[in-house]
């Protein structure tokens, strides 16, 4: 299994902090958002390497970060290889979108025959992703993460799924006006190698290109997809307020 981190956005809601610096590499305590995420994934034996897809504007910053992380790997013997994929864009207006960035990372990272753990690079979790990987191995299908969201307003701003008694995804909607359930979908997915041909051809079948959940929505209609209720909390760092809240919330190294 390879992990793919989607980190090609421009984080305009965090300007000026992220105008010339990538959001996933912002500091939280003595670490960064992305390092905290990958430090957990590094403890999962199934994952062999990380692929980070970013834009051309920030690629050099990620490359320098990757060199430092690999150097630390040699010292500690824990961290796994990291490669950086440059999607060639330089502005928010010219961005490819999360789905096309993922397809690029799969192709350029030689991951078309791999199981893939796909993550947004700007989220923090207070639980390990090992349980998510174990669930994938139990179900033997592609899987997505979900959580119960009581707020209709918040459900209208995210992906929402309906499931059966076995947590098989029956339907997924992006930002529905009238949510059909309280199961919200954060940007964490595991795609099975058996679905890779469908995934690589998704753009030819009406799959949206911007929201990462668009691919999960498409896949739910053409293959079997299960959902894993996350066992803890997630911090989505999308605004200056949410970033400062996380920094001040007592998150520790």
Task: Characterize the structure shown.
- This protein is an alpha/beta fold.
- It has eight helices and 14 strands.
- The protein has helices spanning 33-41, 56-76, 98-108, 130-139, 152-155, 196-200, 213-222, 240-248, and strands at residues 2-6, 27-28, 31-32, 49-54, 82-86, 116-120, 123-125, 142-148, 159-163, 169-174, 183-185, 188-191, 225-229, 234-236.
- Strands 1, 4, 5, 6, 8, 9, 10, 11, 12 and 13 form a ten-stranded mixed beta sheet that branches.
- The radius of gyration is 17 Å and the shape is globular.
**Alpha-carbon Rg, integer:** 17 Å
Mean pLDDT: 92
Between the first and last Cα atoms, what is the distance in angstroms?
A: 27 Å
Unreliable sequence segments: none
Share of β-strand residues: 15-25%
Question: Given the C-alpha coordinates, what overall shape results?
Answer: globular
Helix tally?
A: 8
**What percent of residues adopt helix (DSSP H or I)?**
25-40%
Largest sheet: 10 strands, mixed
Tally the beta strands.
14
Order of helices and strands: EEEHEHEHEEHEHEEEEHHEEH
**What structural class do helix, strand and pairing data support?**
alpha/beta
């Amino acid at each position: 299994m390879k992990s793919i981190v989607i980190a090609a956005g421009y984080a305009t809601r965090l300007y000026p902090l992220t105008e010339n610096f990538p959001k996933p590499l912002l500091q939280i305590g003595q670490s960064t958002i992305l390092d905290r995420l990958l430090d957990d994934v590094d403890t999962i034996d199934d994952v062999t390497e990380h692929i980070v897809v970013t834009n051309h504007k920030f690629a050099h910053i990620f490359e320098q970060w990757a060199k430092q992380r690999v150097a630390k790997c040699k010292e500690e013997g824990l961290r796994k290889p990291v490669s950086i994929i440059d999607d060639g864009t330089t502005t928010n207006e010219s961005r490819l979108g999360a789905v096309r960035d993922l397809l690029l990372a799969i192709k350029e990272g030689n991951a078309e025959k791999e199981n893939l753990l796909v993550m947004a690079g700007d989220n923090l979790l207070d639980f390990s992703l090992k349980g998510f990987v174990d669930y994938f191995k139990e179900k033997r299908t592609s899987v997505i993460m979900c959580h119960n969201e009581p707020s209709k307003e918040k459900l209208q701003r995210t992906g929402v799924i309906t499931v059966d008694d076995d947590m098989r995804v029956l339907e997924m909607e992006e930002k529905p006006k009238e949510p059909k359930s309280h199961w919200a979908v954060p940007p964490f997915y595991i795609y099975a190698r058996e679905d890779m041909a469908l995934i690589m051809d998704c753009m030819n079948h009406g799959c949206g290109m911007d929201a990462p959940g668009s691919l999960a929505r498409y896949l739910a209609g053409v293959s079997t997809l299960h959902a894993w209720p996350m066992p803890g909390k997630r911090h989505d760092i999308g605004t200056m307020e949410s970033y400062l809240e996380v920094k001040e919330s007592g998150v520790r190294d």
